[in-house]
Design goal:
single chain, 126 residues, 7-stranded mixed beta sheet, 11 strands, 5% helix
Length: 126
């Protein structure tokens, strides 16, 4: 079974930056499609970004495009999310997700990942 553990969350002022990390263990995640989703208080979980196993494909929500960058290091079984120019509306719990299905399938299923981490809190003060 794949385990995902997020880190790097915290409190930051608007305009600042954070880098989230997600360490995968328990199974070889290097061939998995991986992504980040978030859930703000009182709102549904929403897609943030995704990356294919080879990093040849990436996708972003319109709300974060140009500010966030997703990347992965398969040798370290680690997924990253660089978040720049943070806004108050980025405040949420951020979840790392992974799925063994290939990119086109996950895309067609609207980022319905099968494995999830516990989440890390990101709070942006205005």
């Amino acid at each position: 079974q794949l385990q995902l553990v997020e880190s790097g969350g915290g409190l930051v002022q608007a305009g600042g930056f954070l880098r989230l990390s997600c360490a995968a263990s328990g199974r070889t995640s290097s061939t998995y499609t991986m992504g980040w989703l978030r859930q703000a208080p009182g709102k549904e979980r929403e897609f943030v970004a995704a990356i294919s196993w080879s990093a040849g494909n990436t996708a972003y929500a319109d709300t974060v495009k140009g500010r966030f960058t997703i990347s992965r290091d398969n040798a370290k079984n680690t997924l990253y999310l660089q978040m720049n120019s943070l806004k108050a509306e980025d405040t949420a719990v951020y979840y790392c997700a992974a799925d063994p299905r290939v990119w086109p399938v996950i895309l067609s299923r609207q980022w319905d990942f099968r494995s999830w981490g516990q989440g890390t809190q990101v709070t942006v003060s205005s």
